[in-house]
Fold this protein.
Amino acid sequence: MSSSDGSLGLYIHIPFCGAICHYCNFNRGLHDGTLASRYVEALERDIRRHSDQAGQADQAPADTVYFGGGTPSLLPPEDIGRLIAACRDSFALADDAEITLETNPETVTVARMEAYRAAGVNRVSMGAQSFRDEELKRLGRVHSAARIREAFAQTRRAGFDNISLDLMMWLPQQTIHDWMQSIDGLLELGPEHASIYLLELYPNAPLREDMARAGWSQAPEDDAADMYLRGFERLDAAGYRQYEISNVAREGRESRHNLKYWRDGEWMAFGCGAHGTRGGRRWRVVSGTEDYIQRIRDGIDTAAETRILSAEERLEEMLFTGLRLSEGLPLNEIRAKFGVDVWDRYGRGLTPFVDAGVLRHEPSVRLRLTREGMLLANEVCSVFV
């Protein structure tokens, strides 16, 4: 379950957006060039000063860098290059490190993507969300389906051979037919990776008010389950392998960075609102952009909260995140690491799910959800609480 060689991931949060999507609940704000320049300067200093929190003499090895947001592709390529250089100077970054940049279609040009590639980015995660214009408008996205296709082609022309697309399902007024049109739109482009997310309606998201005002609704839950199952079946048929509840990839193109989250790996966190974990320590960086910049200038800790995870907490997290993976939980490895026999402890609560065919149990070897079981992941994981 642990990362193959224990290398760190480096997560860098860019909180700026060109427009605020109606459904968004992430830590973000509208782009301001002056503020962004100050923020990049603070990020660079943060990366360099926290290069090795364990206090080791040598640089800590790292093999993934992930620029998340917000919309990181609003930053000029030279700023992204500056931050990648700081990562290389401060960590023993692997020569074949996976370096991901989240983008939105409206920020893409061939020249800009070529410049990101020259700066060291080798993987692009593009927020498409839908291939239907009316759905994009409801979500507050500023791009069109045609722009997604154009931006994807431009990213390919810039030389990227590892592109991920995000899609969202269970959107307001979306039917199963509508959803499958978006799946087909994705398959026409043929990315190496895709993330399929269920829309979550947060209490403070403008979309909730829009839906009430316009009389929009989401399809019944049974239809949402059909969307999920049919979508992944079509992706299967096109040669993608589902490796996590919401993620598929071509062979060998799984997100190496995100696998750290699901395999009890470790990662450093830089930037406002980012979360990190290392050496059993979990921390969350302050949310405010100005607060973060000021703390860096003052040379003080940027963590808003820090806690040391107990062995029991680490076990629970491993169970929750590992069960999201199609490969499931390796029971022998968990027993060796935590001294716990998962089936002895939780078998009584898990047996009904096995009997129902939504959970597979290979005694002493593996515990994994079926695809139908992935729709019930929360119910299954409640047994571990």
